[in-house]
Amino acid sequence: MEYVLHILVLIGIYTALAVSLDLLVGQMGLLSIAHGAFYGLGAYTSALLAVRLGVPFPMGFLAGMTVAAVASLLISLPSLRLHDDYFVIATFGFQMILVSIFNNWIDLTRGPLGIPGIPRPSLFGWTVQSQVGFVVISTVLAALAYTVVGRITWSPFGRVLRAIREDEVFAEAVGKSTLCFKATAFAVSAALAAAAGSLYACYMSFIDPTSFTVMESILVISIVIIGGTGSVWGPLVGAAVLVTLPEALRFLGLPSSVAANLREIFYGCLLVAMMMKRPRGLLGQYGFGR
What we know:
Blueprint: H1 2-28, H2 35-53, H3 57-79, H4 85-104, H5 106-109, E1 115-116, E2 122-123, E3 126-127, H6 131-153, H7 156-166, H8 168-173, H9 178-204, E4 206-207, H10 214-227, H11 234-247, H12 256-277
Antiparallel strand pairs: 1-4, 2-3
């Protein structure tokens, strides 16, 4: 039972991550490979504040979102002037830079040794200790991400984002500051990813740089592709598929190193099959890209 609850917690966290990325991919047609970096930024910010300064979880949670949003503006304002492949390369560079900081700023992050002893979250006098509690809080986080992105999507702001996806030049021609709209959406997406990272840090009680590499960004992209871009339930379905199916490898009795490699092969084959046979994903409204 504890194992099933653990899977449900991970599904909730990855659903929030996928919803936040879908704001960029599904609504604006922008592919970012920096989501793992923002995820890690939220985790490290809340973990350091909790472990070193004793900051309560809600304040660390908000601080992680704020730091990620500010960092997203630093990367988005110059890189969003780029298009297509160049933007992808810029976000990839930011991902690599931040992981390098996690690994090498020993005095702050402890580098490869990681940060142990992260306290459990406490909300309104209730300290989350059980797996059931984390299932509840991860579900609330996913619902929060859905609510925020849904309100943006169906607002006039969201209509501008979809116009940018279809024809950015036309959106600029009718007087819309596309850079401002894209930077704002990028900041919201980064903040939601950081929120998932804060919860992940408290849930695992330990973080290190290996949890926030470029492979984590690719996993979130895979969830969005397989679930379907621009779909309400796509992120949830994609997270459920990519979290539960690879776990079946654990029951084959394979060594952990072999199972890890097979998991990456599984992701790759599933991505290739989806892009060839169903580019819109299982529930997507739009093709991946413009």
